[in-house]
Predict the 3D structure of the following.
Amino acid sequence: MSLHRHNHLLSLALIAAMGLSGSAFAQSAAQQTAEEKAAAATAEAEAARANADMAQSAAHTAAEVRDAGAATASGAIAADAHAQAAHDSSVNANASANDAVVAAQEAQGASSVAEASNNPVAAAVEAQEAARKASNASAQAADASVQAQEAAEATVQATTEPPATPEPATSAATTGMTSNDASAAMQSTVPANVTVTSHPNDPSGYRPEFRALDIDQDGLLSRSEAGTSAKLKQEFSALDADHDGKLSRTETDNVIN
């Protein structure tokens, strides 16, 4: 065999060896990738299940707080809504956790195929996709768990919120007096020995009694006695028909009772 032919055969052998070595390396890398992705998917599934458990616990707490009663009717309504929200979030967290578990199982199956197959690259791709699904499902479970816990806290706040403080009563001076208030105010301005009654001929609707004004009970009202009534005081001279300086019951009949 010539030297040239010998060198050619040696080169072919080296190329073949390198090809086999490269193929083995590629298979080993694919198997390692599949194994790593399966482990990552499993971790995500475990985290998702933990978050689902926390969400379920929060929903249970919210329900207990709601059932214990609230300080106000509006608080009870709000607590019921928040407790329902906590329950719904718990259900969502559990569903996402289940999705993560399924994805992890798919990743583990793909890893097993990669380990036993002569062509593990496809199995490694499947394991990677399953790990991605597990990660997404785990994130959704975490979000739902946070929502359930926040809803549980809102339930507690709703049940413990005290009744609204009533507005202080506003004085009549700032709101305007009603007819009853006006009557009371007028009553307070009349001397203690004078009563107040309604009179149909008086625009104001109120007039002092004659006998209450007649202090000496002589049947006549002197100018000083009539001075208690602003109306009599103003019209005293006009009412004094006989100009005797006193007002009789007849002279005041159209003014007071």
